[in-house]
Each structure stands twice: as structure tokens, then as C-alpha cells.
């Protein structure tokens, strides 16, 4: 069978930027247009991100995509569309003057958890290193670090290991709401065998 090789235009063109801005301004009467445009823009944005394209046009499409989601009462989708790119950009600035700062490391680990994949694995290492720090032993701050460690493990479906880490956190504070919520969420995964 003969394979066709399609040559694509640049991932994000000016006309697509114009289309994105137009969809943002669509009123309720144009719901079908906005939904169709959202689908097209989501695919375009995914391709651009995979290719590492962070041009102004892609940023405009990302923002318009989030606005359409927000107008469609999908605030979480809008935040997920905006947060990784914006969070990473904000994260780069402090790192230039405070690379070893504990706060910067925690911010970076949290951002990596929200990104997933290899970045979540790197977040695991940050949380694990903090958990092993002698100053953290038996500290109430250790609970947050253990929750982060468990979240990183759960992202890489290591549910039994994550549950063990959360059990350690629960031994420090059995009534901690974050520990209880994470254990409840994890219990569903453990019971379904996923």
C-alpha cells in the first residue's frame, strides 16, 4: 500500500489565531460554532505542544481555548489548559536566584505533579529527598511531603506503595483531612485493581 505524506502548514497560523479569537467572541447563538472550534483548537494545541511550539500564536490559541471552556462552564478544563504553561513560565523566574530554596523545590514538584509523566517522576524524587531530610523527622510538615510522595506514586499507578506512604502520614496525624481524602481516593483504585 502506498502511504501519503501530508505536508502540514506551520502548526499555528495567523488564520487559526483569528479563528480562535473569533470563537472566543461567539455569543450563545453560536454554541455549535464554538464547540466545533474548541475541538479543532484543542487538537491544534495538542500538536503544537508535542512539537514544542510556544509561539505567541500558540499562546493566543491556548488562552482562547480556555476562554471557550470557561464560557462552556468547564472552569477546571480552562485551568488545566492554562496552568501548566503559565505555571512553568512563572516557575523559571525564581529559580534563577533561588535554585536551592525549599519553597522553589516544592513549587516545582507540585507543577511537575500536575504535568504528569516523567515530570511527575522528578517530583517524586524531590518529595522523597525532603522526606528523608533529618529536619523533617516526626514534623507536621512531613505530612504534606508524604502526601506529595504518595501522589507522585499514584500517578505512575504504584497504588500499594502510595497507600503505604499515606499510612505513614496517617500515623503522624490520623485526622488530617488531606491524608484522609487521599486515602479514600486511593482506596477506590486499590479495590478496583487498576
3D architecture notes:
With 194 residues, this protein is an all-alpha fold. It has two domains: 14-84, no CATH class; 98-192, Tetratricopeptide repeat domain (Serine Threonine Protein Phosphatase 5, Tetratricopeptide repeat). Helices cover 74% and strands 0% of the residues. The protein is built from nine helices and no strands. Helix 1 packs across helix 2 and helix 3 runs antiparallel to helix 4. The longest helix is centred in the middle third of the chain and has 21 residues, at 75-95. It is elongated, with a radius of gyration of 21 Å. The model is unreliable at 1-11 (pLDDT under 50).
Task: Write a concise synopsis of the structure shown.
The protein is mainly α and 194 residues long. It has 2 domains: 14-84, no CATH class; 98-192, Tetratricopeptide repeat domain (Serine Threonine Protein Phosphatase 5, Tetratricopeptide repeat), CATH 1.25.40. It is 74% helix and 0% strand.
Amino acid at each position: 500500500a502506498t502511504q501519503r505524506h501530508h505536508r502540514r502548514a506551520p502548526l499555528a497560523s495567523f488564520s487559526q489565531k483569528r479563528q480562535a479569537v473569533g470563537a472566543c467572541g461567539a455569543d450563545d447563538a453560536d454554541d455549535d460554532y464554538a464547540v466545533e472550534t474548541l475541538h479543532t483548537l484543542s487538537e491544534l494545541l495538542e500538536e503544537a505542544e508535542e512539537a514544542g511550539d510556544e509561539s505567541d500564536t500558540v499562546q493566543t490559541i491556548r488562552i482562547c481555548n480556555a476562554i471557550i471552556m470557561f464560557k462552556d462552564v468547564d472552569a477546571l478544563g480552562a485551568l488545566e489548559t492554562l496552568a501548566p504553561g503559565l505555571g512553568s513560565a512563572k516557575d523559571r523566574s525564581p529559580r534563577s536566584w533561588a535554585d536551592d530554596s525549599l519553597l522553589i523545590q516544592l513549587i516545582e514538584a507540585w507543577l511537575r505533579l500536575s504535568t504528569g509523566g516523567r515530570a511527575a517522576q522528578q517530583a517524586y524524587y524531590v518529595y522523597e529527598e525532603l522526606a528523608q531530610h533529618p529536619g523533617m523527622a516526626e514534623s507536621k510538615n512531613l505530612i504534606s511531603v508524604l502526601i506529595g510522595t504518595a501522589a507522585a506514586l499514584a500517578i505512575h499507578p504504584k497504588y500499594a506503595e502510595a497507600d503505604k506512604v499515606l499510612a505513614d502520614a496517617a500515623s503522624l496525624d490520623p485526622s488530617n483531612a488531606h491524608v484522609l481524602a487521599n486515602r479514600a481516593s486511593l482506596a477506590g483504585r486499590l479495590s478496583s485493581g487498576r
